[in-house]
Amino acid sequence: MADNQSLEPVNSSTTIFSFEQNTNGSTNPYEILKIVHNSDDTLIRNLPIPMTPTTDENSKDIPLNAKHKTWIRLFRPTQLQGDNFSATNKLPVIIYIHGGGFILFSAASTMFHDFCKSMATHLSALIVSVEYRLAPENRLPAAYDDAMEAINWVQNQALDAGNGEPWLRDYADFSKSFIMGCSAGGNIAYHACLRALELDLEPVKINGLILHQPFIGGLKRTESEIRLINDRILPCPVTDLMWELALPIGANRDHVYCNPMVDDETINGGKLGLIKRCLVVGCDGDPLIDRQIELMKMLEGKGVKVESWMEEGGFHGIAFLDPQIAEILFGKLKIFIFSDDITN
After folding, report:
1. Which residue numbers delimit the Alpha/beta hydrolase fold-3 domain (predicted)?
2. Across the strands, what pairs with 93?
């Protein structure tokens, strides 16, 4: 499904995070992100992003919405382990949503492709990676709509035992499904999960929400944002621009799409307690860490069973560049996903 995307000859995804500041000490977010914002609210994206097609037998692309040009990249474990793939020992399903500040990257981006491929094998899980519409061409809530369409697609496969997607039909334990997102994908996963709570998704059961360094914000700077205002990965001018391009025109960073702390009972607050469990992953080298901790406390206050892995140091996106951190993360995910401590 990535045929319309150019496959850039870039050797390492580290180039994506090699942001440079201006000599005067401030940051120019347009130069950092290598984007041009056109008058018709479209972007010219010049950031070299390596892409990976599905060329092996353990991943494939499946159309989702032809009109919106959305699709799913499905992964299964690369090593078939005995009867792990039998009718009596099926695999959990993780609906995964990639990051990129809502304006960059794809499910076919090499770093997300490789991450999902490794996650499928380490966790012995099926990964449903969502290609959603980017902003500003499609501002929020378009990405939330696409994530929900992917969740409904998973349900449709479960209901159509005869003609459903073969990998899901043969391998999936739909009663053990999870929604996971990284960075902006974490934001999308959060909002999609709240929507999903309103629906009858049987036989799909959402057993947990996984927020990997979720991208959330607000007008008032937090201590960690001030401390890391010129962060190499996410300097505040960059995050501000991402929100400006992603939010509905005229909205500010205290819009509920950006700042979950403004929720009340009339928006999403009343639904939060319906989330079974939530795992939040972060590190104090990420400017967003304070907001992520605030979100955890809010969820706990609503009665959600929240687990966390908060590391010292690090940076936003570290799991995509540090194999050791990725290995630890997969271990944490495995414990969370296969834990028997699930509220019915």
Report:
1. 94-318
2. 126, 177
Strand partners, 59: 75
- Between vectors from CA 37 to CA 32 and to CA 43, what angle results, nearest 5°? 90
**242-254 b/e with 16+ CB inside 10 Å = b?**
bbbbbbeeebebe
Q: Tell me which residue of 280, 215, 221 sits closest to 246, measured CA to CA.
A: 215
Residue 243: which residues within 8 A CB-CB, separation 6 or more? 217, 253, 258
Question: How confident is residue 273, by pLDDT bands cut at 50, 70 and 90?
Answer: confident
Q: First CA to last CA across the chain, in angstroms? A: 38
- Contact criterion met (CB below 8 Å) for 72 and 157: no
Residues 6+ apart with CB under 8 A from 230: 21, 25, 27, 236
Strands lying side by side in the sheet with 172-182: 59-65, 70-75, 126-131, 91-97, 172-182, 206-212, 277-283, 305-311
- Which residue among 59, 183, 212, 224 is the active-site one? 183
pLDDT digits (tens, 9 = 90+) for 192-224: 999 999 899 999 999 999 999 999 999 999 999
- Quick check: is 286 catalytic? yes
Average pLDDT over residues 221-241: 96
Nearest to 211 by CA among 154, 277, 263, 273: 277
pLDDT for the residue 2: 56
Active site (annotated) includes residue 177:
no
Which domains are seen in the chain, by residue range? 29-80+87-338 (3.40.50.1820)
Regarding pTM above 0.90, the answer is yes
Active-site annotation holds for 12 = no
Q: 51 pLDDT exceeds 90?
A: yes
Are 71 and 61 a contacting pair, CB within 8 Å?
A: yes
User: Of 61, 146, 286, 290, which one is the catalytic site residue?
Assistant: 286
CB 72 within 8 A of CB 150: yes
DSSP per-residue codes, 281-295: EEETTSTTHHHHHHH
